[in-house]
Design a protein that fits this description.
This is Pyruvate, phosphate dikinase. This protein is of the alpha+beta class and about 575 residues long. It contains 15 helices and 28 strands. Strand 22, helix 14 and strand 23 form a beta-alpha-beta unit. It is globular and about 70 Å long.
């Protein structure tokens, strides 16, 4: 029986400098920060097991810089604390003008002398990746093309280190620390070779993704939470941390799909856009597979294991294998369905299930990882490992009888525990107006404007598709800091209009929701077990928002969610009449 409390204490007390194989990877004194320590801890934990399944698990070449280097850097920066009152541009300008400690420059030179592929520089602060606060997206991680002479590459890397250091004082980080009652922070960092290889003009891994030892958002009760879940994409794994399309696998049964087996729905949820480093632009680029598939096909002998061609017909359509005769059209498109992947690469899923369990047992808390995978060689690179905030500890009071209340929304999948009662506002984004808008971002900013006028009032946000999506055609591209008064997000799935919520667990957006106890549930119109009371939202009295697509409905609303039953509801305790007075909902 594992004593998880004592195990977690040991995990946080572990020092990678005590391992003679890991200590040479570190320069600078002090802690290397949560991100760096957790990654090296994961490697040591897996090696300690001695299981052959872990023989092909490795870390990319990397240099770890201790937070003591950050303190030494600040000691040479005049009036560092006064920078808190400056604008971000001035903070960064001051940091760029300050020299790094010589031992950091020497360490970077040694690292770059052995790595000529693209690299990433990642923040690893003392407060990052704690049990309560992930700081996802609050600090800076940046890629460098890493071309030119060694001195040129070193100069570019040094500037990025300074920019990462500057983020400690940026408003996004200082306001987050203040919001959660955290004190000052100090910055360690990681310089790491990006996983992948050159394939023609593109550099990328075949597959990338994120994994979690607990699945807190099950789409069916046939799934066991403790078996874990993966989110997988073709190309650079950064696409898996955004609210775009990815393949979600439950490790209880990798053949189960959140969207079901209907070919049209599978196609609608399938990844098409993937990210690479392009040697021609020396930048991160996103391409649609329809446009470049012929260029990359020769580099992927097992391409058919994760890509298929969807054919439209009068029914639900069907899939076929990819061959050289394929030509994209309105009736045919290439999609990353990953349909054959579980059958052809069973060892990958066996390894990931054991790996996630091993890391959870080693840390004493659920585990969260990022990885890259080359299926033809069965080679896995671990890019990040950290504690997963345990949202399933949030207690819900179950689902009450609706009774005299009016049922507005009901969800039957991807629901956790939680409840919030007597919320005075619903903010409803009308999908009919949003879908024909010429400027999606104006609507997103209008939500932020409305949020700023709410004072202490809470609200439930109901919007089509994926709230916070980087692709506005998939959903409203609102930023998380524009939803500070939101206590629950309901995403509406309206298939005939192309709005499809997706299990984006593990994205930066979802990390913030979980940490801040913002409830979430998806509702799919027309699906058995789900309810969207369209009449209520289209015909209730409302106040106009800052944009015509936004309606503010005043009332008395409650949300109840039960992860065990995989069920969530939004009900009206009382409704407004035309004069804004509250009336019983029965």
């Amino acid at each position: 029986m594992i004593d998880r409390g004592r195990t977690t204490e040991s995990y946080f007390a572990w020092n990678p400098r005590d391992n003679p194989l890991l200590a040479p990877l570190i320069v600078g004194g002090g802690s290397i920060g949560g991100k760096g320590r957790s990654l090296l801890f994961a490697l040591e934990s897996l090696r300690r097991q001695g299981d052959p399944l872990f023989d092909e698990v490795r870390l990319p070449p990397a240099l770890y810089v201790g937070a003591g280097a950050f303190e030494d850097f600040l000691s040479d920066l005049p009036h560092a604390e006064s920078l808190l009152r400056e604008e971000p541009e001035e903070i960064e300008r001051s940091f760029l003008g300050n020299p790094l400690p010589p031992y950091v420059t020497a360490g970077l030179r040694r690292f770059l002398a052995g790595v000529d592929e693209p690299i990433v520089l990642r923040s690893s602060s003392l407060l990052e990746d704690s049990l309560q606060h992930s700081f996802a997206g609050k600090y800076r991680s940046t890629f460098l093309f890493n071309a030119g002479t060694l001195d040129e590459r070193l100069s570019a890397a040094e500037d990025e280190v300074r920019r990462i250091y500057a983020r400690i004082f940026f408003p996004a980080a200082t306001s987050y620390r203040k919001k959660h009652g955290l004190g000052d922070d100090a910055m360690g960092l990681i310089a790491m070779r990006i996983s992948g290889r050159w394939r023609g003009p593109f550099y990328y891994p075949t597959l990338g993704g994120v994994g979690f030892s607990r699945n807190f958002r099950r789409w069916t009760t046939r799934i066991r939470s403790e078996d874990g879940v993966l989110r997988l994409v073709f190309g650079l794994g950064t696409m898996s941390t955004k609210r775009g399309y990815a393949r979600t696998y439950s490790l209880t049964n990798p053949s189960l799909r959140p969207e079901g087996l209907d070919p049209y729905k599978v196609m609608r949820h399938a990844q098409e856009r993937f990210q690479v480093i392009d040697s021609r632009t020396r930048a991160l680029e996103i391409y649609n597979i329809q446009d470049v598939w012929r260029d990359i096909l020769p580099y992927h002998p097992c391409f058919g294991n994760f890509a298929q061609v969807y054919h439209q017909d009068c029914e639900d359509g069907y899939f076929s294998s990819v061959d050289r005769s394929f030509m994209p059209s309105r009736e045919k498109k290439l999609s990353f369905t990953f349909d054959a992947f579980p059958k052809r690469h069973k060892i990958f899923f066996d390894r990931m299930k054991l790996l996630l369990k091993t890391l959870e047992d080693s840390m004493g808390v659920p585990a969260d990882i990022e990885f890259a995978y080359e299926p033809c060689e069965d080679r896995l690179e671990l890019l990040q490992s950290r504690p997963l905030w345990d949202g399933d500890d949030r207690q819900g009071q179950g689902i009450p009888e609706v009774g005299e209340r009016r049922l507005l929304l009901k969800a039957s999948k991807m629901v956790t525990n939680g409840s919030v009662e007597h919320v005075p506002w619903i903010v409803y984004v009308d999908h009919r107006i949003y879908s024909v808008s010429s400027d999606f971002h104006t609507i997103a900013r209008a939500i932020g404007e409305m949020n700023g006028t709410m004072g202490e009032s809470r609200y439930i946000l109901i919007a089509p598709g994926r709230v916070g999506s980087s692709n506005p055609e998939l959903g409203v591209p609102v930023h998380y800091n524009e939803l500070t008064r939101c206590c629950c997000i309901v995403e509406l799935g309206i298939p005939r209009e192309g709005y499809m919520p997706e299990l984006s667990y593990g994205t930066h957006f979802f990390s913030d929701l979980e940490v801040d106890n913002v409830l979430y549930m998806p509702v799919y119109e027309g699906e058995s077990g789900d309810i969207f009371n369209r009449d209520f939202f289209e015909n209730s009295p409302f106040e106009a928002g800052p944009h015509e697509a936004i309606r503010l409905i005043r009332g008395d609303f409650s949300v109840f969610m039960c992860g065990f039953k995989n069920k969530g509801i939004v009900v009206a305790e009382a409704l407004p009449d035309e004069r804004g007075r509250q009336i019983p909902s029965g």
